[in-house]
Amino acid sequence: MRDAESEVGALGSVGVGTPGARSLRTGLMRNCNSTCLNGRDLQVDLERTLERSVRITNDANCFALAEAVDGASAGASVVFGVILGTGVGAGIVVDRRVLTGANAIAGEWGHNPLPLPREDDLPLPACYCGRAGCIETYLCGPALEADHARRHGLRLAARDIAEHAEAGDAACEETLVRYEERLARSLAGVINILDPDVIVLGGGLSNIRRLYRNVPRLWAAHVFSDDVRTRLVPPRHGDSAGVRGAAWLWNDDEGGPRGSLLLETR
């Protein structure tokens, strides 16, 4: 921060995107899949170290905000920004404002149960949160890889599964079809409750291009409407979306961005 301010000759504000959220009761971090942060007062520690106020929110909120302001869903009223990476999370943005919620958990769809579990979804996988059958245990990158290994006896990276399926590998194709169906069921539940204009995918699995074609075709069977207009789109800002969204946390009262230093905890 000091190096950046020295280089540009100006003071900056600091926005931070982090996994999990601050407890409204204690101010300590909770629900972080980067578990070393849980139980720590990250905001106070940073403010003490940096000697200024810091704005901090969930990294998925930052991702969703960046894509809603000037990204893939710019101009949309309601945006659901999904992270499909080492974990599964999401942020909700309404009219370019992050929806935090009464319990600071708005968008945490990854720790809801997988809807309508089928025989090939069983047994319900254990989740680090202490529950079983969470959406995250089926849709994160490690879950996709574990599902393929369990069914076909071969451990492949998610990227390789997608590439092999594209090349005609039947086993990898089967794994991706199963993944797409689970993703469609899960997002249909979001559409039925939130009815967003746009769903933006982020994280490593957002690079699987076939998801944008196949998942909307599948979710139609589970959405309570005869005409589903929600769009599923890839991100515009890629890996930069989280830090861009952290900067947008310091919008001024007129809605314009202020100069910000961009940090994202991992």
Q: What does this protein structure show overall?
A:
With 266 residues, the protein is α/β, with parallel strands linked by helices. It has 2 domains: 75 residues, ATPase, nucleotide binding domain (Nucleotidyltransferase, domain 5, 2-Layer Sandwich); 161 residues, Nucleotidyltransferase, domain 5 (2-Layer Sandwich). Helices cover 36% and strands 17% of the residues. The protein has 9 helices and 10 strands. The strands form 3 sheets. A 5-stranded mixed β-sheet has the order 7-6-5-8-9, with helices on both faces. Strands 4-1-10 form a 3-stranded parallel β-sheet, with helices on both faces. Strands 2-3 form a two-stranded antiparallel ribbon. α3 crosses α9, α5 crosses α7 and α6 packs across α7. The chain is globular, with a radius of gyration of 19 Å. About 4% of the residues have low confidence.
Provide the fold topology.
Layout: H1 2-8, E1 13-18, E2 21-22, E3 29-30, H2 42-50, E4 54-58, H3 59-70, E5 78-84, E6 88-94, E7 97-98, H4 136-139, H5 141-152, H6 158-166, H7 170-194, E8 198-202, H8 210-219, E9 231-233, H9 241-248, E10 260-264
Parallel strand pairs: 1-4, 1-10, 5-8, 8-9
Antiparallel strand pairs: 2-3, 5-6, 6-7
Helix pairs in contact: 3-9, 5-7, 6-7, 7-8
